[in-house]
Amino acid sequence: MIRKNIKGRTAGIIIGAMILASGAIVMRELARQDSAVHLVANGPINPGVAAGEPAPDFELKTKDGTETVKLSDHFGKEPVVLIFGSYT
Which domain holds residue 63? Predict the structure, then answer.
C-alpha cells in the first residue's frame, strides 16, 4: 500500500514538472514573438537610408590598418556591393 502511494506521488511530481516545463517553453516563445511583433510594428531603431537617397559618407581602415578608404572617394565609379546577413 505504501509503495503504491510513493509511485503515485512520484508520477504526480514528474507529470507536474513536465507541465511546468511546457508552460515555461510556451511563455518563452510568446515573449520572443511579442518582441518580433513590436519590432515589425514600430520599425527598427535606426531605419537607415530610404530608397533613392544617397548613402551617408563613411570611412574604414583596410584589413592591415595602413590605409583609410572613404566611400566618397569612390563616388561615380562602379562599386561592388556585398550584402551579408541571414534573412530567415
Answer: 2-48+55-74
30 in a domain, yes or no? Answer: yes
Residue 11 within any structural domain of the chain: yes
* Structural domain includes residue 87: no
Can you give the pTM of this predicted structure? 0.34
pLDDT tens, the chain, 88 aa long: 455 566 778 888 888 888 888 888 877 776 765 555 555 555 556 667 888 888 888 898 988 989 998 888 877 777 677 778 777 6
Could you give the CA distance from residue 36 to residue 26 in angstroms, rounded to a whole number?
A: 15
The rounded Cα 19 to chain-centroid distance in angstroms is 28
